[in-house]
Amino acid sequence: MLILKLKPYYRKTSQKKKAGLVAQLLRELYLLNFMKFILGKKIKMSQVFTDDGTVIPVTLIEAGPCFVLNIKNKEKDRYEAVQVGYDKIEKNKKKKPEYRYIKEFRTKNSEELSSYKIGQEINASQFQKGEKVQITGISKGKGFQGGVKRWGFSGRNSTHGTKHENRTLGSVGASMPPRVMPGKKMPGRTGSERITIRNLEVIKIEPEKNLIAIKGAIPGRKGTLIEIVNKNS
After folding, report:
1. CA 3 → CA 7, 11, 86, 123, distances in Å?
2. Which residues lie closer than 8 Å to 38 by C-beta, 6 or more apart?
3. Are 30 and 230 within 8 A, CB to CB?
4. 56: Cα separation from own chain's centroid
5. Checking DSSP bridges between strand 99-106 and strand 81-88, what pairing results, if any?
6. Which three-class secondary structure state does DSSP give residue 9?
7. Do 102 and 70 contact (CB within 8 A), yes or no?
8. Strand residues in 123-193 grouped as ranges (E)
9. Which residues share a beta bridge with 201?
10. How many Cβ atoms sit within 10 Å of the Cβ of residue 140?
């Protein structure tokens, strides 16, 4: 960051260069309040050892590079957002998207929107070690499951008279009205849901390899599309 490089050389530079450095510093501090976002893929879980030997479980994410495809504004689209593309398709067929994944991220204001340009590259270098991010992904699909696995029901008592009903629901309705009420927890398809986890810490960043290590587990299987957002709010 410029704020770390400014101090040793500030006294040796001229007034004109000082003004330029201060303007660049103010611009950098101004951009720090902007929302950061990027798309990536979940690779696997691993471990990171600190200097004192503490083991930190992390999830490795291949983050970016993403490219700005379109900019939505209030005058034309009635909302402000940045549309980015990720995982470019090399052998592209006609009338097919150029990128495998295309997502939109809403911005806070028009000033933040003006900092992006079409064709701009977004990579992992914008994030910093130790900051908190928000992770969004699709959880693992588990198929059609019963109430015990889907909702954590205890099942029936394993006592005299219980036969082949250890994992059944039991009563699901009432005498009046004689029907199943809407919203009743019952067997059904489990998983494959959009899940968001907030305040996850960035443990390590390798911009040259487009890798970000996030503390803890995140939703999804290997290869799941992951959204990493830091709203700085």
Report:
1. 7, 14, 31, 21
2. 63, 64, 66, 122, 123, 124, 126, 127, 227, 228
3. no
4. 20
5. antiparallel
6. helix
7. no
8. 132-138, 141-145, 188-191
9. 132
10. 13
- Which pair of tokens denotes residue 151? 């909702």
Looking at residue 167, the DSSP 8-state letter turns out to be: T
Q: Number of C-alpha atoms within 13 angstroms, CB side, residue 190?
A: 14
pLDDT tens digits, one per residue of 91-123: 766 666 778 888 888 887 777 787 788 888 888
Q: How high is the pLDDT of residue 7?
A: 52
At residue 2, the pLDDT reads 45
Cα distance between residue 115 and residue 104, in whole Å: 16
Contact 202, 127 (CB under 8 A): yes
Tokens of 228: 């990493």
- Sequence length of the chain is 233
* Structure token digits, residue 89: 């398709």
**In this structure, what token pair is assigned to residue 1?**
């960051």
Q: Is the pTM of this model over 0.85?
A: no
Tokens 């398809």, residue located:
189
Strand partners, 39: 227
> Helices 2-9 & 15-32, crossing angle to 10 degrees?
160
Six-digit token string for 175: 């005498």
